[in-house]
Amino acid sequence: MYIAQAKRKENIAEYILYLWQLEDLLRALQFSPEAIWTQLVAPQAGDDPRRQNDLLMWYVDLGSLLREEGKTRSGHLDHTLHLIADLNDLHTELLKAPAGARYRALYARLQPELPRLRALIGKADLSDTELAFRVLYAAMLYRIKGDDAHRKAVTDSLELVSPVIGELARIFHLVEKGELDIWKEPDDEKDAPSC
Questions:
Q1: Residues near 19 by Cβ (< 8 Å), separated by ≥ 6?
Q2: What would the 3-class secondary structure string for 128-150 be?
Q3: Which of 16-20, 40-44, 155-159 has the highest mean pLDDT?
Q4: Among 84, 183, 96, 175, which Cα is nearest to 128's?
Q5: Dihedral angle at the C-alpha atoms of 188, 189, 191, 195, nearest 10 degrees?
Q6: Which end of the chain is more exposed for a tag (fewer CB within 10 A), N or C?
Q7: CA separation for the pair 152, 139 (Å, rounded)
Q8: Closest CA to 5 of 58, 47, 49
Q9: Do 3 and 18 form a contact (C-beta atoms < 8 A)?
Q10: Where are the alpha helices (H) located in 11-77, listed in sequence order?
Q11: What is the pLDDT of residue 149?
């Protein structure tokens, strides 16, 4: 809970990937409150009863959401999918907006790889943004599992995917904080790169 809150404030991409990891971890623990306590709560909460209770309730609530959404075996919480949809909306805007020049350059490098990645992930109907998240998550899972055959197929594209998602998350954070209007034309003097 505390880690998720910090990630949500700092980096939306890390937050989404962290929640996806927790979904799989809760499934592996079979949503058992006892297993959640020993594996997740006790190592984080120390002797603070309030913190222990908050963490346990948060993990149990996540498990309940997965059950309610019919995602006890696979799938991702609607909450994260809505966030990815918001990021994809921003992606679409950045392809046209004045503040998207750097993003467009990074995305142009990734774009030729998208058909191969879409075939590899096996879902043709994903937005480019969700596809990129799934590639990042798959690479993480393959690394954890030690599955070198599949990992190589995905990690070859990480040097293209990671910068795109990193830049998208950075811009999302600035827009969310009200520090960037992506449609405002850059001020030549103020926004010119320094030499």
A1: 4, 62, 76, 77, 79, 80
A2: HHHHHHHHHHHHHHHHHHCCHHH
A3: 16-20
A4: 84
A5: 120
A6: C
A7: 8
A8: 58
A9: yes
A10: 12-28, 33-36, 42-45, 49-68
A11: 66
Tell me what pLDDT residue 170 has.
97
Q: Which helix (H) or strand (E) holds 114?
A: helix 114-121
Residue 89: φ, ψ to 5°: -60, -45
Taking CB atoms within 8 Å and a gap of at least 24, the contacts of 45-53 are none
User: What are the tokens at 169?
Assistant: 């998350």
Q: Are 170 and 141 in contact (CB under 8 A)?
A: no
Q: What's the distance, Cα to Cα, between the start and end of the chain in Å?
A: 43
Hey, what are 180's tokens? Answer: 């960037």
* Mean per-residue pLDDT of the chain: 90
Return d(Cα 120, Cα 123) in angstroms, integer.
8
Structure tokens at 190: 């103020």
How far, in Å, CA of 94 to CA of 107, rounded? Answer: 10
Q: How far apart are CA 117 and CA 123, in angstroms?
A: 9
